[in-house]
Model the fold of this input.
Amino acid sequence: MNLRKLYENLTCHTLLTNTTNIKVRMRRIHFRIMIGVLLFYAFYPLTWFLFRRPSEALKRSVPQSVNGTTVWDGDTVTLGSTQSETTMQDQSGETKERLKEPVPQKNIQSPNTDEENLSAVLQKDMRIDAAAETTEMQTTLEEEREDPKMGDGEKVVFRDVIHDSQNEKEISTSSGDNVDVLLKYPTLEGSMEKTNCPEKNQSKTENSKEMLQASNADTSKSPDECWDDYIVTTGNPLLSNSQTYLKIDEQHDAQTGWHFPVGPGLAQEVFCPQWSFPASSYYTTVEPTVPFEVMWRVWEDLDADSESVLTPITIKKASLDFTVMSYNILAQDLLELNQHLYAHCPLEMQQWSYRCNLLLNEIEKWAPDILCLQEVQENHYHEHLHPLLSQMGYTCVYQRRTGTKTDGCAVCYQGSRFAEAAVSKLEFFRPETGLLDRHNVGIVLLLRPLVTTEAEVKEAGPSLCVANTHLLFNPRRGDVKLAQLAIMLAEIDAVIKSCKARGEHCNVVFCGDFNSVPHLPLYQFITTGELSYQGLPTWMISGQEDLSYKPSYHRLFAPLWPSSLGISDTCQYTANINKTQSQNSGTRGYSHEFMLQLRFCPAACVRPENLALIPGVTDSKPDTSEDAQHYEKRFRDRLRHQVDLESVYKHVLPGSGCPEVTTLHSEGGTTVDYIFYSPKRTLTKKQRAYKTSAGKGLKLVGSLSLLSEDFLWSMNGLPNHILPSDHLSLVARFQLELDDA
Amino acid sequence: MNNKFDALKDDDSGDHEQDQGSPKDSEKEKPEEDDKEQNIIKKKMVVPGPGEHPLQYNYTFWYSRRTPGRPASTQSYEQNIKQIGSFASVEQFWRFYSHMIRPGDLTGHSDFHLFKEGIKPMWEDDANKMGGKWIIRLRKGLASRCWENLILAMLGEQFMVGEEICGAVVSVRFQEDIISIWNKTASDQATTARIRDTLRRVLNLPPNTIMEYKTHTDSIKAWEDFHGLVNASGGR
Done:
């Protein structure tokens, strides 16, 4: 029963980690150890089982579930516990590697970061970790005796787990040090933080040293067998999570290769027998009973459960389904330039030829109709990707970054499904505008769906605007990112208007690597169409890093860019604002927004010579700083755009609520890639949406699930033997309602 | 004549008050300054400055106010209405507009008129005599915003009714404010409907806002009836 409580402790570990009265607990450590020794004997019979069937896998599974990523079956434990002891060691070995990374990384990625700060931060982390570790251990032991106070909801699941392990206990005979194993649970848990676990082991405090000595026997074992680690951990959650991975039962039969789910609803599977495991010498401790199946990403259909966002379908018209993939494929030059970020990845897997094959496999697997790639290295594009993609039926548009970087963006579409109506390649380097001095690029395409009717292929409406970009990385330069984004939005706006001029609706898919995290200002701006930026720190725009500790950082002030850029603060080309508003040729029409933009132009602030001064009537002053009228002010420090956009991904994994990540390297994982689309809305958004968009727009019918950071680390991070980039591919399927032909 | 301003007070949109009885030559009695200004405008049409954004039409701002305390009878409508200035570009518009008090901050019984250059804000003007206006009554506090939206749409040619628009008026009254937009042909229902729809859109009006169309001939008749009654009773 104590074991059971231990498990329960684990589930509430995250709460307890933050417990503050560490000192009190320190004093009690020795007492705990005594308890531990007692437990050792109490659990003596269990240890036979644990010894023979090393429990690390079991432990590994527990922290994962603690993190809330998955729901575990009882079966899980049985399977998991057959795994080798090396899991944990590998885990720590791997995290150790990662831990070493941040300093050099930061130096490269943000050259202004001073090392002192960094090391200070690191040290702080270590201290916190050590403290947390002791806390964990104490709480674990403490609550072996006391009844843990927990919510019932989570426990239910784990009780199943525990029952199973208890059953096994009965079979097992005694040997080995059971307490040791138990003590290690919290340590492993600490490693869930994915950063500092090994530090703990290395920089043990006096207090924790004694605690850990017991477990040292295990932790000190060879930490370099990374292979085991990933096999165990990939196999483990995958096999166990019956909720997410639907086809587990069928999977058990196959042991000779890898199964991938393909297509909506996992209707098909791809079997990949070519995968061979590393030399068996790595696996001396692994029992061969574990089937090696991996189901790493799952297609999710969004028909029923997302009706709140989407219009209920009444399909009267012909519709067209198409799939879009956005993928930052990690340019080889950048990989080699930033080796430290990928130290966890074996060198052979860093080879372009290896990664290119994986990439093409992945593209084939999901067969997107439209492919938006970032970090496409120019020579690789011309030598490999373009020829191969052409063979696969894609028509490609490529735009290399300006400057010295060798990569760029590519948009490829299936020539049998879409016809190209217009192409704009955008370079964000505008030396005449001081802000836009960075060499990022984007592509905006206008495609027309192709419909086959009785041996005839013809274009049909509505058109589809596909935009792809890779915004500036620099976390401190949110201002540059916003300006680059504005150029993209202005081009998209122009494309939409060109369609409107023909009386046609235009749907939008806007994807790319935006180098900005969800729900922070740049993201909010895209999805809400509005951003009040006045006074915001520039680093906050993207939110990639919290730089608020810096003694000084830049803030945003209006105007973000000079009018000479030709883009308004409504993210429209100023030259177009006139044109598009005038209906009859020759009429000088101006939109409300355009008129307002000139409100405080220098010419408008001079009092007219012939204006008679009538007290109380003409004695006002255009004091721009005063801005007595709140709505005037609103227009001045607010950025807006008129493209109705929504993100395909919601940035948390369905079910578990864990954050999704789209990119991961040794510095950590986060979401920076997106597929935005113009959704079908039941009601037109009164202010922003185009008048004609009511009832039109794209219906999201499915997407390829992303993964959590923990899960990706369990695959040995990115890139790895399956995933060729440090980003994940984003894949979404849309339904487009065709106009009546 | 005596009770012209009484009639004005009762009239919905305020500014269409004209001095029916006063002959055109009464203009000559206007203050010299006014006269001079008008002459300048007549002689020299305003033109957009270099690099400015020209408007489709030139417009003129007018201002009128019922002078408190003075008997209305001694004033003509035209004497009470002042030209503020004319402009030909977006920039020039803002130059005037931003030196003028917002309608919501005006005191007393006042009106701003913004008419195409050459059209007087009077029923009898050739451009207006066959026309009419949409009238929207606003509770206090909305006039500044609505007025700005209205004139920005008018100057920016958002009504899409060709040359039909004559001008717009905001009338500040005691308990409410009234905005109206005048067009040339009251009988053109397609045009008036289009103006109404655009108004609803650009003013972002609540759905239950009452909009009323009134032809100028009706306005004249109503005023004359009232005036006649007054005259009859007043024994002019």
User: Anything to note?
Assistant: Chain A touches chain B at residues 578, 581-584, 587-592, 594-596, 598-601, 603-608, 610-612, 614, 616-622, 629, 631 (CB under 8 Å). Chain A has two domains: 2-228, 302-455+465-605+629-737.
